[in-house]
Design goal:
The complex is a heterodimer of chains A (441) and B (221). Helices cover 52% and strands 19% of the residues of chain A. By secondary structure, chain A is an alpha+beta fold. Chain A has 3 domains: 145 residues; 88 residues; 147 residues, Heat Shock Protein 90 (2-Layer Sandwich), CATH 3.30.565.10. The relative contact order of chain A is 0.06. Chain B has 2 domains: 118 residues, Rossmann fold; 90 residues, Arc Repressor Mutant, subunit A. In chain B, 42% of the residues lie in helices and 22% in strands. Chain B contains 8 helices and 12 strands. In chain B, helix 2 packs parallel to helix 3 and helix 6 crosses helix 8. Chain B is an alpha/beta fold. The chains are: A alpha+beta (441), B alpha/beta (221). The interface between A and B is large, with 40 and 33 residues.
């Protein structure tokens, strides 16, 4: 899953790390260069002091040892020198048995050189002309304490930097979460829309989200009105075609035609076919399917009306009952659900002897609908056939096997599944599994 | 039995009126919703057949008007709008039964018969039975014991009305109002003649005369 939060986090960490390291390293370099420049002056003064302590003695040039500072006498003191004369070379006592590295250039040496006892030395060399000969003086001082100090500073700096980084990232998460809260709210509302718990998105959002929310609401309204319009048009078409069909049916049943029973039967059969086809296609055209995300079916509000209608249509003392968890709402269009349940129950009422029962219940991944009757039921070997053959279960009773075909169309649109089973009431059970609506299917 | 048919398609209305008259109903036909709303609430119909797609005023509104004015006459809604959502809406507006177009003429006949029986407290009878008589509405024959008695169209209409109101006192005026449509000349002597013919076929005691009040169907027991 791609998250804005995570992306912002990674971006920030990258930038902070890069900038921090660059800053720390360049500061370190500049500090080091400055320090070395300072030490270079110091070393040059030491070299010049050494030069002044050279004197011409009885055996040529001599070093006035007692005048030298004590640091050159004490072994490993951190201050060293070497004086090269043609044919002669002196070094400080502090070097003990370590030989100071030869340097090819004058001035401060670019790198550090090895000193006695693991020391790292900053080396300075200067050439002078004195007493008619070239005198090369190398002075070195121990750089190790400074290196150690650097390391300490680096450690502390690293820890501090890390702390600051964590703090900044945490603060950034907080800020981002606060800034994205309206987005999260919209996401939640879209989810509610999907589950049919909401008709439109709340328009009170930050200005950045306003066009999005307005567009979604506009689309919702447009889809709904398009559906209404097409349903209305389908209704009108149905009305326009069915009235003449009713006239034709009535004409075909006339007494005058009873004299030619074959003609009459043929007419009636053709009319019945037109009627079936028309009803099926009009029914299909009416389906909202999953076009409307904001639709819902409130069981407690709609089922009593449906059952009253069924009781009116099947006025033969059937006991009709329904069970659904209180407050259950199915996330599909009201008319679609009514059509599905109406057709299933209508079919059950045609077959039932005394009782029809409907149960709607939540399942782990959606809902189950069970319609039971205490009619004659259906032998198991016919069930598969009945399902495969375009479903004509109620053919013998009401003359057309439409109900379940429409049920099939609705279930196809919802990705639902239908199964025929034995009912505990003794007849047939139609069991339907409805998956929860996918967010983007 | 006097019916009001409200249907805007002339072709269908012609067919229905002819069929219904053949079955012994007196039928008034209206095509406009506004006329239907007015006439349905002042004429004493026994049943009203209402199409929902009407000019002038939508059928559902006509139905709501009738019910709001306290008209309790059974209403059979006839419509091409067959979805369950629309059926439920029709029921809520006060319909007693719902028949979707296109329909078989016999289906309409059966629904009308059932609705009339139900409205007179004789629900769940396959045939109209009252006072020891069984009326076969399809063949227009009355069965008395083991014997089938042939009836003329006028006798059938009168007997059906009497059998739907067993034991009730019915004036000549009331009988005339319910047996003839709005356009037929109503002559109370004709009713007297038919009553006498029925007595001839069913026995003198089947229909009692209350002087100055009217008739009462007593049955043949």
């Amino acid at each position: 899953m791609r998250s804005i939060q995570r992306r912002l986090g990674f971006g920030l960490i990258g930038v902070l790390l890069g900038a921090g390291l660059l800053l720390a390293q360049s500061t370190f370099w500049m500090l080091d260069a400055g320090l070395r420049r300072y030490l270079q002056d110091d070393l040059r003064e030491q070299a010049e002091a050494l030069l002044t302590s050279l004197a011409r003695g009885r055996n040529g040039v001599q070093l006035d040892e007692p005048r030298l500072p004590g640091v050159y006498q004490r072994p490993y003191s951190g201050h060293y020198f070497r004086i090269d004369l043609p044919g002669e070379s002196w070094r400080s006592r502090s070097l003990w048995d370590h030989a100071l590295t030869d340097s090819s250039t004058t001035g401060l040496q670019a790198g550090l050189v090895d000193g006695p006892g693991d020391q790292r030395l900053l080396l300075y060399r200067a050439d002078y002309r004195r007493f008619g000969q070239t005198i090369s003086i190398s002075v070195a001082s121990d750089y190790t304490p400074i290196l150690q100090a650097y390391r300490r500073v680096q450690w502390v700096g690293c820890l501090l930097g890390l702390g600051v980084l964590v703090l900044v990232v945490l603060l950034q998460r907080l800020t981002v979460r606060r800034a994205l809260r309206p987005l999260e709210e919209v996401r939640r509302q879209v989810e509610q829309l999907q589950q049919g718990q909401r008709q439109a998105l709340d328009p009170g959002v930050p200005v950045e989200l306003e066009p999005l929310v307005a567009q979604i609401n506009h689309l919702l309204r447009q889809t709904e009105s398009t559906l209404q319009r097409s349903r209305h048009a389908v209704g009108n078409l149905g009305h326009a075609l069915k009235t003449p069909l009713a006239v034709l049916s009535s004409l075909a049943a006339r007494v005058e035609l009873a004299a030619c029973p074959e003609l009459q039967a043929s007419l009636q059969e053709q009319l019945a076919q037109i009627e079936q086809r028309l009803a099926r296609e009009l029914g299909r055209a009416r389906l909202a399917g999953e076009a409307l995300p904001a639709s819902h079916f409130d069981c407690a509000a709609e089922l009593p009306g449906l059952f009253a209608t069924l009781a009116m249509v099947h006025n033969r003392g059937l006991a009709l009952d329904w069970q659904a968890p209180p407050g259950l709402r199915l996330p599909w269009d009201r008319e679609d659900v009514l059509e599905l349940l109406g057709n299933l129950l209508d079919n059950a009422c045609k077959w039932a002897r005394t009782r029809v029962s409907l149960e709607i219940a939540g399942a782990p991944e959606g809902w189950v609908v069970r319609v039971d009757d205490d009619g004659p039921g259906m032998a198991a070997e016919f069930r598969g056939e009945a399902l495969n053959r375009g479903i004509r279960l109620d053919e013998q009773v009401a003359g057309h096997g439409l109900g379940l075909a429409i049920v099939r169309d609705i279930l196809d649109a919802w990705h639902g599944r239908l199964a025929l089973q034995d009912s505990p009431l003794g007849g047939l059970r139609v069991a339907i599994e409805l998956p929860a609506r996918q967010e983007a299917s | 039995m006097r019916l009001l048919l409200v249907e805007d398609s002339v072709g269908l209305a012609d067919e229905l009126v002819t069929g219904l008259q053949r079955q012994g109903y007196a039928v008034d036909w209206l095509a406009d919703g506004r006329d239907a709303a007015r006439q349905g609430s002042c004429e004493p119909y026994d049943l009203m057949i209402l199409d929902l797609g009407l000019p002038g005023k939508p059928g559902l509104e006509v139905l709501r008007d009738w019910r709001a004015q306290g008209v309790a006459t059974p209403v059979l809604v006839l419509t091409a709008r067959a979805s369950w959502a629309e059926r439920i809406e029709g029921l809520k507006a006060g319909a007693d039964d719902y028949l979707c177009k296109p329909f078989h003429p016999e289906e309409l006949q059966l629904r009308i018969q059932a609705l009339l029986r139900r409205a007179h407290g004789l629900a769940n009878q396959p045939q109209l039975e009252a006072g020891g008589l069984q009326l076969d509405e399809a063949r227009q024959v009355v069965r008395c014991g083991a014997e089938d008695i042939e009836l003329t169209a006028a006798e059938f209409r009168l007997l059906r009305y009497l059998m739907l109101h067993p034991g009730q006192l019915l004036s000549k005026g009331q009988l005339a109002e319910h047996l003839y449509d709005g356009e037929t000349e109503r002559d109370s002597n004709v009713i007297e003649v038919h009553i006498n013919r029925l007595r001839g076929k069913l026995g003198r005691t089947a229909i009692e005369t209350r002087r100055g009040q009217g008739y009462r169907f007593a049955g043949v027991r």
